[in-house]
Design brief:
Layout (H helix, E strand, L loop, with lengths): L3 H7 L31 E7 L6 E7 L5 E4 L4 E3 L6 E3 L2 E5 L7 E6 L5 E7 L5 E8 L2 E6 L7 E4 L4 E5 L13 E4 L3 E3 L4 E9 L11 E8 L4 E9 L13 E2 L5 E5 L20 E5 L14 H5 L9 E6 L4 E7 L5 H11 L5 H13 L3 E7 L4 E4 L14 E4 L2 E8 L4 E8 L4 E10 L2 E7 L3
Parallel strand pairs: 3-28
Antiparallel strand pairs: 1-2, 1-29, 2-4, 5-6, 6-7, 7-8, 9-10, 10-11, 11-12, 13-15, 14-15, 15-16, 16-17, 18-19, 19-20, 21-22, 22-23, 23-24, 25-26, 26-27, 27-28
Helix pairs in contact: 3-4
């Protein structure tokens, strides 16, 4: 059976249980916007996890954060997790830990405030901002539905006509997360996340299904399928992987070994792979498959994982991938978990080994040549936990966590000269998670 801790582990962007209060807790009361809201600077955020509940911290910085940072000196929230950004605003599940989609800004004093909130019937799934007046979001409990809203006023404006959308009736979750917008044909591509809570694995299908939506008519056009691939929820910042010409890529996860199919002889569907919808088309390229872990030189790992993708330019993207074997104990525990035989203590042990095991590397991916190269100058990281990545001003920013080397923050990578350096380290407030840049 799937357990609460593992579902929370895999849906770190969807940890929406009521969480413990903190001393400087935000009350999430919508604040009247002013013309002096910040239009530059950064918001850094963390999560302090504990079995009894989690605390969230976030704070504003005039310039890019650097050095040693105690984020508990900023503001605490019952929940905060930026799932979309637009100019000087970012969007999150309601910060009071309840349902709802909130828009947040930084006011003139440097305080993070709620600028508007859209009530929802359940916790949110994916959010995609198209322009000033059009956004699209999903709710976790509404199978196969997408809603539209106006990000400027934070009002719900309607629904996408999803008649005929793919739904797997035997699964109790059918929704959308990392949606990709292609401006050249005004199409939204919404990959289906489908899961059955009664199974041990996380994604309960062996194909990827993507809904193609015409945003001019606000209607679904068709479902496209890519066989022998699993789970399009790439984790991390859910960055759209779309290049300059309109080629769309999805970093699919496989099964994380939870289907019991591990090692080099596991089926291709159980392993991570990148798949492609070519520019100018609304169909998958059936001939394009790219396993970044194998390309990096680790085809025989018991469990291959690739998460946290971000696109740069000229066919180059980045992701966080397993770059070393797990301890033998992980293999033993994954097998027991997949068989439904792991005890609560063993599940907790597996959580610690997988989440905080630093055997991942941030790598450069050539999507045309299908190659993967580890970025020099960056340590191993516990990439499965919160593999957030961002591109700002021609530089890349990668979340890093390595307990042994006392690393808990973000690194900055400059593709122009191939240099990487530690940007900041969190000394208190939990694990570094987000780094949002505000703009005009």
């Amino acid at each position: 059976m799937k357990t609460i801790w593992y579902k929370s582990l895999l849906l770190s962007a969807s940890l929406f249980a009521l969480l413990s209060s903190c001393s400087k807790e935000d009350n999430a009361t919508p604040t009247t916007p002013t013309t002096t809201d910040k239009t530059s600077g950064f918001v850094a955020s963390t999560i302090a996890y504990s079995p009894s509940g989690s605390s969230y911290f976030a704070g504003y910085f005039d310039g890019i954060p650097s050095g040693q940072i105690d984020l508990t000196q900023k503001t605490s929230f019952k929940f905060i997790s930026p799932v979309a950004t637009y100019k000087n605003a970012f969007f999150s599940q309601a910060t009071d830990g309840t349902t709802g989609l909130s828009k947040l800004v930084v006011d003139a004093t440097g305080k993070i405030v709620v600028k508007g909130n859209i009530p929802t019937t359940s916790y949110i799934g994916g959010v995609k901002i198209i322009n000033e007046t059009l956004g699209v979001y999903a709710e976790q409990s509404t199978a196969g539905k997408l809603f539209t809203f106006d990000p400027s006023t934070m009002t719900k404006t309607g629904e996408i006509d999803m008649t005929g959308a793919k739904i797997i009736d035997t699964n109790d979750a059918n929704l959308y997360y990392n949606m990709v917008y292609r401006a050249s044909d005004n199409r939204l591509f919404a990959p289906l996340y489908t899961s059955n809570s009664k199974t041990s694995q996380y994604y309960d299908a062996t194909s990827i299904y993507v809904e193609v939506i015409n945003l001019t008519t606000k209607k679904r056009e068709k479902t496209i399928e890519f066989a022998n691939a699993m789970d399009p929820y790439q984790r991390g910042s859910l960055n759209p992987l779309i290049d300059e010409t309109g080629n769309i890529y999805f970093l699919t996860q496989g099964s994380y070994g939870l289907d019991g199919k591990v090692g080099p002889n596991a089926p291709v569907s159980s392993k991570p792979q990148i798949i492609k919808i070519p520019a100018g088309t609304t169909e998958f390229d059936a001939s394009y498959r790219f396993n970044p872990v194998t390309a990096l030189g680790f085809p025989n790992l018991i469990v291959q994982i690739a998460v946290g993708g971000v696109y740069d330019k000229n066919g180059i993207a980045y992701a966080c991938v397993t770059a070393g074997e797990y301890p033998a104990r992980v293999t033993e525990l994954i097998t027991k978990f997949a068989q439904g035989k792991a005890t609560a203590a063993e599940q907790a042990e597996l959580y610690q080994l997988v989440i905080y095991g630093s055997n991942y590397k941030w790598v450069k991916l050539d999507l045309n040549a299908k190659t993967a190269t580890a970025i020099p100058g960056m340590p191993f990281t516990a990439g499965f936990s919160y593999p957030n990545s961002y591109k700002y001003d021609d530089k890349l920013y990668f979340q890093m966590l390595n307990d042994a080397e006392k690393v808990n923050g973000f690194y900055e990578y400059n593709p122009a000269d191939g240099s990487a350096k530690s940007l900041f380290n969190i000394t208190a407030g939990g694990v570094a998670v987000g780094l949002v840049k505000l703009s005009q």
